[in-house]
Amino acid sequence: MSRSAVAYPDFLKVWLGTFVSRIGTEMTFGIAIPYEVFKLSKGDALALGFIGLARGVPIILAALAGGYLADAFDRRRLLMMTQVLFCALSTLLAFAAFGGFTSVPLLYGVTLLGGVLVAIDLPARQALLPNLVSPEAFPQAVSLNATTFQLAAVIGPALGGLILGWKGTPTIYAIDAATFLVLFAGIALVRYRRPESAPRASIQGVLDGVRFVWKQPVLWSTMTLDFLATFLAGCMFLMPKFVFESLDHGSFTIPFVSKHLTNEQALGVILAAPALGAALTAAFMSRLPPVKKQGIAILAGVAIYGVTSAAFGVATNLWIAFVLLALSGAGDAVSMIVRNTLRQECTPDALRARMVSFNMIFFVGGPLLGEYEAGIVARIKGDPGGVPFSIVLGGVLCVLVAVLYAVRYPWLARFERKSPTT
Q: Alpha helices of 41-168 — where are they, by DSSP H?
């Protein structure tokens, strides 16, 4: 009988530390920064969309370099360094908020620098994961890791909405800074060390991950599918404007309790919805055998994500919108978990971080650049109704992309790769 992933102490330390840290990150980037930009820009949809551009562009530009660093240097030490720098950025935001000199340019600047750190942190984090568990426990580790991220994305915005209405953004930023120290401690306690004989990547090998992916049709096809789907349907940074201006404020009550929610609390509810759907799905999948027909699962997940996103765009009731967003998160989680497991299983360890960094251009760059695209569409359509129109259009186009890939690449729908546990 194979051991559970949580039975491995190194994985457990990083897993729990990541969970705490992600809650703080989701409070800052999921709700506090979009809320402050919304208020400071007086509800400008394009200004909200620009948050995605400020975070996405540095990730895309620095992704390959981040993968090289994670393959060339000790991934554990690299992660410790990024946690310190993340903590410094959140501390800067806290000082600015407490001092009353927060500005839109400052928020964009911190977002941009945070994007550079993500380009270094994420490849190292994902590439370290297979070194912490056995091959048999790895698929479960991927699902549990996804569950952590999604559950934190539920708790973060919901908790952030409460803190926002109670103490404001300064407290959110201070809490976020402290959470990075928790993850730093967890990584520092990891017993795994990179073997001295491990091959070191050279600067000429930065593009090896690109070459590897190009020779694996199932990898580049699912990467580009994910990019297009999230680019077209990405809209979460527009949620302050959507909640404050498009949803029926009379629906801001807790069912069966009749307690009215503030705008900030309703925003936290909406931002937590897709992550809740994704977390429940990831938790459910972690208890199941690995998915056998990976191709059709990925396509179905993208289609569900698009359909529910489009339906969300026409919702006016808070709780109907919540359910639709939760379903969109569930569809996205199915596609993400299957893709992540497939990608890690197909990649040799020597190339793992560089391949992750190349993939990051697609799975991180897509939704972040999509936020800017959604802001442009909403600005062009204009108020009232610009944001709902942008959301509906993106969802419809996302579904069309899934259909196009199923028709254009029929082998993708039939794809099935046996995992180490089967």
A: 45-72, 75-99, 104-128, 138-166
Sequence-distant (6+) residues with CB within 8 A of 300 are 331, 334
- Residue 355 C-beta-side C-alpha neighbours within 13 Å: 25
Nearest by Cα to 23 from 10, 32, 11:
32
Q: Report the percentage of the chain scoring pLDDT > 90.
A: 32
Instruction: Tell me the pLDDT tens digit for each residue of 238-285.
Output: 999 998 888 887 778 877 666 778 888 888 888 888 888 887 887 788
**Per-residue pLDDT tens over the stretch 156-170:** 888 888 898 788 899
Q: What's the start-to-end Cα distance of the chain, in Å?
A: 13
Q: Which two tokens stand for residue 301?
A: 């997940």
Cα-to-chain-centroid distance, residue 149 = 7
* Residues 6+ away with beta carbon under 8 Å from 215: none
**Alpha-carbon gap, residue 92 to 411, rounded angstroms:** 50
- Separation between Cα atoms, residue 176 and residue 25, nearest integer Å: 6
Q: Name the pTM for this structure.
A: 0.81
Q: Which sign does the torsion angle of CA 393, 111, 25, 21 carry?
A: positive
**Residue reference for tokens 């897509």:** 366
Q: State how far the Cα of 292 lies from the Cα of 310, in Å rounded to an integer.
A: 29
| Strand (E) or helix (H) holding 20 | helix 9-25
Q: Token digits for 253?
A: 């009550």
Q: Is the dihedral of CA 86, 355, 234, 141 positive or negative?
A: negative
CATH architecture of 5-190+204-414: Up-down Bundle (1.20)
Task: Give dist(CA 192, CA 321) in Å, integer.
Answer: 44
Per-residue model confidence (pLDDT) at position 204: 60
Q: Quick one: which of 118, 102, 101, 99 has its CA closest to 54?
A: 118
326-374 tens-digit pLDDT = 999 999 888 888 887 777 777 776 676 677 777 778 878 888 889 999 9
Q: How far apart are CA 351 and CA 333, in angstroms?
A: 25
Q: How many CB atoms lie within 10 A of CB 112?
A: 17
Arithmetic mean of pLDDT over the chain: 84
Beta-sheet strands, E only, within 7-51: none
CA angle 151, 127, 174 (to 5 degrees): 45
